[in-house]
Amino acid sequence: MNATARAIGAGFLSAAALVALGAVPATAAEAPPRAQTPEKAASAPATLDTLSRFFARDGALARSAARPRIEEASVPVRVLSPEFVAGKAGAPVARVEFHASKAVASDGQTASLWTARRADGDWQVVNIATGDDEIRYADQGARALPGGIVFREPQIDAWYVQKGAKVLPLDEDAVRAVGRNGTSLAAYRDRVVKAYGAKLPGSAYARKGAAGGYDTGSPAHEEPLVTAAAATAGAGAVLAMALIGARALRRRRTA
Question: What is each CA distance from 10 to 59, 105, 162, 253, in whole angstroms?
Fold first, then answer.
């Protein structure tokens, strides 16, 4: 199975995969329209046209009937920070990797548009993923711990919210990791250091050509990643989809 087919199967399409499908012309991927905010990039006519193709890709509805719309403002998507795992003084638990906007089709299908800032300061859509996990967990975290930071631990596909010394789980993967009542930030650091500390850049694990901070786990639940970084090569945007240079990403779950 080629990379494009695997991306579709996993529910992820990078700009490179979209070009391969003919959803956008190569020139559009190489020189995207200027957009000064994530919302403008997400709602651009070319993006909406690509979304129509995305929502119609499995024959669920005709492309002309998709009528995608962008709902709400974009949210920053944070991922567990390698500096935090490495124990760097003052390092936040997570860092912003991209922004996400929620797209909805006429039949109720949802998708998450990932946008990244280009070298020239404008924003570019770099990936489309099925579902609305990023937006949904941002909302859930704001309710669970107002003013907290929502982030994802990609190695186990877990979502959390952190504020001060408190870390609360937002999904069942996180509950299994830290318990239903959550844990302290110090205890969470101890856990991730134990799990990933030996797999950071420069480690023997990374030098062996392994995933560099990503525990591949069970292959039955994973799909090779078509990275957003590939879609923005030369544009100055590099996204770490896992801790460092992940080669795989868990299949997005559906309810």
Answer: 17, 19, 29, 9
